[in-house]
Design goal:
Pnp Oxidase, Chain A, 37% strand, Split_barrel_FMN-bd, flavoprotein, Flavoredoxin
Amino acid sequence: MSHFRPVELRHASRLLNHGPTILITSKDEKSGRRNVMAAAWSMPVEFDPPRIAIVVDKSAWSRELIERNGTFGIVVPGVAAINWTYAVGSTSGRDEDKFNSYGIPTVNGPVLGLPMIEEKCLAWMECRLLPEINAAERYDTLFGEVVSAAADGNAFIEGRWLFDDDKRNTLHHLGAGAFVTSGKLVRALD
């Protein structure tokens, strides 16, 4: 049974504001083909409605699917997903279904039906691509509005991350297959 619970959209920005490596999922509605890629560049950009920015190279197959279908998913992998994260970030999905190739199980997102990953992961969001602006034609940054979000109820509690377990830390990419984890939670004094 899944430990994932819905996240109030007013807290969706908190799923990304600490800069984790993410997995971007996409699906071609016509053919049913799906894809997943790793990305290190993402961030929340607005609270209400919740909007995020991701960077996907214009030549990537994920970018083609996202622009064609107007949707994408964001998955926040945990430490246990390090091998999947590195693998899907190192290969193209044009010729293979990376979910099948690497044995990555999926669930369907509740609003857009995008492939989401809960096993070994800590959170996910379904997003609608926002209309292009002039800059989008020149740059690799895409903007999306979060329409649904969920997180592991043992790692994201009452709208906040609780990094108290080595298995429930997020990944942060350093390059060449090296990552650091989110680390120990510390608090400021009142």
